[in-house]
Design a protein that fits this description.
By secondary structure, the chain is an alpha+beta fold. Helices cover 51% and strands 12% of the residues. Strands 1, 2, 3, 4, 5, 6 and 7 form a seven-stranded antiparallel β-sheet that branches. β1 and β2 form a beta hairpin. The N and C termini lie far apart (62 Å). About 17% of the residues have low confidence. Keywords: Cytoplasm, Nucleus, Repeat, TPR repeat.
């Protein structure tokens, strides 16, 4: 592991496989942490012992709740959201893993993991019967060895965040949405934008409408809605684009005139394409002309549209419309 990072903890080495987003989270006692994990042996084949993705659901632990495998708290608190990292852990940290693994497998199989020690504690029962019920775990129990944990730290559920945490989560979700959009992963990007919108809506309902803080949140929400609309355009969901952009302009009637970021200006640029695809070429033309005028005069507006670009776009819109009429698509 040439890229290994020491965590200043004996017997642990960390290698980042995929960088996370935002700052290092400050997990306080009682915080719920969600992650996927894969446990590997340190043999030549890197034999997989457990994999939460194969089970079909992630793992959850509560920080400071005396989790069976204490080392996982150390590993998780060294990670950023969406980070994927590989941890080599020496035997001093992995001795109880077979017992934890047995419980996880029992739960995945729909069994009660406590059934095996109804009359005695887990360790006493283990020594009495000399088996955990799984051959590979029995082997690990008899001969403890270093293990590799590949962990992916997932975003916390937004409904479970405090006010400050929601505000901190918004730029992270927004940035992740932008990254996914650039990669062409529009469905995933739209989900990130929606999560950020939900965070802001939950904060906004606690503010008095049309006061400074409410308006500040409204501007942030509108920006995210317009990002979301770009995803919808890519997915050819044109009527929903019109619904969202029209709603913004209806609630901010000065949006055509005062088109700054988040106040309807970008919405104007989203509308022409959607209008043309639902067979409204005249409205699309009107939207394009207005967007062009705004882009050339408003500071902070998205990249200006030249008259030549605008005319090319209008010609294309009319060609699409003519094709649909000619071939009976309307």
């Amino acid at each position: 592991m040439d890229a290994a990072l020491l965590l200043n903890v004996e017997g642990i080495k960390k290698t980042i496989l995929h960088g996370g987003t935002g700052e290092l989270p400050n997990f306080i006692t009682g915080a719920r942490v969600t992650f996927h994990f894969r446990t590997l042996k340190c043999d030549d084949e890197r034999t997989v012992i457990d994999d939460s993705k194969q089970v079909g659901h992630p793992m959850h632990i509560i920080i400071g709740n005396m989790f069976k495998l204490e080392v996982w708290e150390i590993l998780l608190t060294s990670m950023r959201f969406s980070e994927v990292a590989e941890f080599w852990c020496d035997t001093i940290h992995t001795g109880v893993y077979p017992i934890l693994s047995r419980s996880l497998r029992q739960m995945a199989e729909g069994k009660d993991p406590t059934e095996w020690h109804v009359h005695t504690c887990g360790l006493a029962n283990m020594f009495a019967y000399h088996t955990l019920g799984y051959e590979d775990l029995d082997e690990l129990q008899k001969e403890p060895q270093p293990l590799i944990f590949v962990i992916e730290l997932l975003q916390r559920e937004t409904w479970n965040l405090s006010k400050d945490e929601k505000m901190q989560a918004v730029p992270i979700l927004h940035g992740e949405g932008n990254r996914l959009f650039k990669l062409g992963r529009y469905e995933e990007a739209s989900t990130k934008y929606q999560e950020a919108i939900v965070c802001l809506r939950n904060l906004q309902i606690k503010e008095k409408p049309w006061e400074v803080q409410w308006l500040k949140l409204e501007k942030m929400i509108n920006t995210l809605i317009l990002n979301y609309c770009q995803c919808l355009l890519k997915k050819e969901e044109y009527y929903e684009v019109l619904e969202h952009t029209s709603d913004i302009l209806r609630h901010h009637p000065g949006g055509w005139r005062e088109a700054g970021p988040g106040l309807g200006g970008e919405g104007v640029q989203s509308r022409p394409g959607a209008q043309s695809h639902v067979h409204r070429p005249r409205v699309a033309s009107s939207d394009s002309v207005r967007a062009s005028k705004l882009a050339s005069t408003q500071q902070g507006f998205p990249k200006p549209i030249t008259i030549s670009q605008m005319m090319d776009e209008l010609c294309l819109l009319w060609e699409v419309f003519y094709f649909k009429v000619h071939w009976g698509k309307i």
